[in-house]
Specification:
Helix content is 4%, strand content 40%. Strand 1 and strand 2 form a beta hairpin. The longest helix has 8 residues. It is globular, with a radius of gyration of 16 Å.
Length: 184
């Protein structure tokens, strides 16, 4: 049987971009947005225990978030309405790509999903009003293990000027790369 999705390695080891095979006709479309066996064949063992959804306006930045060990989370992210720029930053202490990041556009139109394993900070910038993001996590939310990385350490030409972003006060106070938690 052919896979219902095309899974490609990202630019950093452990990241994967998933493109579903879409079947369209005059009635609309159908696709499998998630298949555990296909993801595990590419990324290795992972199981999701929680799914979250957020709705955001243009210019909202959520992140860069992660949970520390032992409650660290892998995430599978997709945008089901609107458009976002999704970012993952490598925080693995012994990784040759530590501090590097990958940015990918996820949208309702491109139907891509982005797999981010344990060991990365994650966030996204909303490019359209009322964008809806759904993401699965491999562990439950744990407030005492929550952490983050300052977006100011990322050198990237964002399409919305940084001065126009809307961030929570917490997301404005995460530490820089030299003070952030690193995964073993």
């Amino acid at each position: 049987m052919t896979s219902p999705m095309d899974i490609q390695k990202g630019s950093i080891e452990g990241l994967y971009v998933i493109r579903p095979k879409v079947f369209e006709d005059e009635r609309g479309h159908f696709f499998e947005s998630f298949r555990l066996s296909s993801l595990q064949a590419a990324a290795g063992p992972v199981t999701f225990v929680q799914e979250n959804e957020s709705r955001s306006q243009r210019g909202v930045f959520r992140g860069l978030h992660f949970q520390r060990t032992p409650k660290a989370q892998a995430k599978l992210i997709r945008c089901v309405r609107g458009r976002i720029l999704d970012i993952a930053v490598d925080l693995r202490a012994n990784s040759p790509t530590r501090g590097q990041f990958e940015v990918i556009e996820l949208s309702a139109d491109n139907r891509l999903s982005f797999f981010v394993p344990v060991g990365f900070a994650h966030g996204f910038l909303c490019l359209e009003d009322n964008s809806i993001v759904q993401y699965k996590t491999s562990d439950y939310y744990s407030p005492q293990d929550e952490s983050g990385l300052s977006i100011d350490c990322i050198d990237f030409q964002w399409p919305i000027p940084r001065a126009e972003w809307k961030l929570t006060s917490k997301d404005q106070t995460w530490p820089d790369m030299d003070k952030v938690y690193l995964f073993d």
